[in-house]
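Sample pair:
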Amino acid sequence: MRQVISLSFAENVAKEVKTLSRKRGYFSVSKYIQGLVEMDKEIISEQELLSSIKQSRQEYKKGKAITAKSMAELYDN
């Protein structure tokens, strides 16, 4: 079941949202907003990022790092 949500934008922002939705290839502004919500779900949180950095530092200190001159070299191993 669908539920209607009303959004209020300043006129210039509303025009920008409509322009961006067309530019990005969305059928409607509604689909564009739905797409933004889905993308937002994929964004890593600050907490997750900091946790990942801490874990990587620990692995580096334990010698688990791989030294490579390029990204391509990482995939050759």
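The mean pLDDT is 91.
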